[in-house]
Design a protein that fits this description.
The protein has helices at residues 41-49, 109-120, 202-211; strands spanning 9-13, 59-73, 77-79, 85-88, 91-92, 99-102, 143-146, 152-171, 174-192, 195-196, 219-220. With 224 residues, the chain is mainly beta. Helix 3 links the parallel strand 10 (195-196) and strand 11 (219-220).
Length: 224
């Protein structure tokens, strides 16, 4: 089976289905023209006065929990060997709501997310969902896949990567404490009812139980 995905979308497939991972995509822009004029003393003073509070403070992460969580799952679709392309329509299971809480509101949400992105190493701050960017609001499309030659009851599930963390920032007026919840990326799984995915990640097993029934009632299968 082949399937299409979006940037940073990982496909988890079961039984004898093929796994397809879409390449990451990135875009950049460049500005041309004369170099900017030097700031005046007044402008520099204003910029310094409005700089983020404690922007250079050391951040200590006391806990960082990162896991994929199920966000959407489709109804079960009956597929015949000659059906070819099949479309799934995942429905909402849960909404991940980004939050940033601090003991001093002078430390902004953007500062916290920028520090978290640096801690995670492989992600830019623009890729981490900020407060107000709920997972349920992201653009979603029906999922199409080629099932030619396969028959049975199948389900499509979607998930995002969620990070829950707590931290301490060393600031001039004393330590600032806080916590953050954010999400990023997108993962998908095609599951065959009657075949236990034996998945190491809880979201895949949850999707199966919600749609196909108890895992104990199914035969052992493979997860890729």
């Amino acid at each position: 089976m082949t399937s299409s995905g979006t940037a940073r979308r990982q496909k988890w497939l079961t039984v004898a289905l093929l796994c397809a991972v879409a390449p990451s995509a990135a875009a950049c822009t460049a500005a041309t023209g004369k170099p900017p004029a030097q700031k005046t003393t007044a402008a520099r003073t204003k910029a310094t006065a409005t700089a983020p509070y404690c922007a250079g403070g050391a951040v200590r992460w006391s806990s960082v929990n990162r896991e994929r969580r199920l966000t959407e799952v489709s109804p079960v679709v009956k597929v015949g060997k000659d059906d070819g392309s099949v479309t799934f329509h995942p429905g909402l299971v849960r909404n991940i709501v980004p939050q940033v809480s601090t003991s001093d509101d002078r430390v902004s949400a953007h500062q916290v997310l920028a520090a978290l992105a640096k801690h995670l190493k492989w992600w830019d701050v623009e890729e981490l969902a900020a407060p107000g960017e709920e997972s349920a609001d992201r653009q979603r499309h029906p999922v199409k896949a080629d099932f030619l030659g396969h028959a049975g009851l199948f389900v499509d599930a979607e998930a995002v990567q969620v990070v829950d963390a707590s931290f301490t920032v060393t600031c001039p007026d004393g330590d600032v404490y806080g916590s953050v919840t954010t999400w990023f990326g997108n993962s998908g799984a095609s599951l065959a009812c009657g075949v236990n995915p034996r998945a190491k990640e809880a979201w895949v097993n949850e999707a199966y139980r919600l749609t196909c029934g108890p895992l104990s009632a199914s035969k052992a299968g493979r997860t890729h």
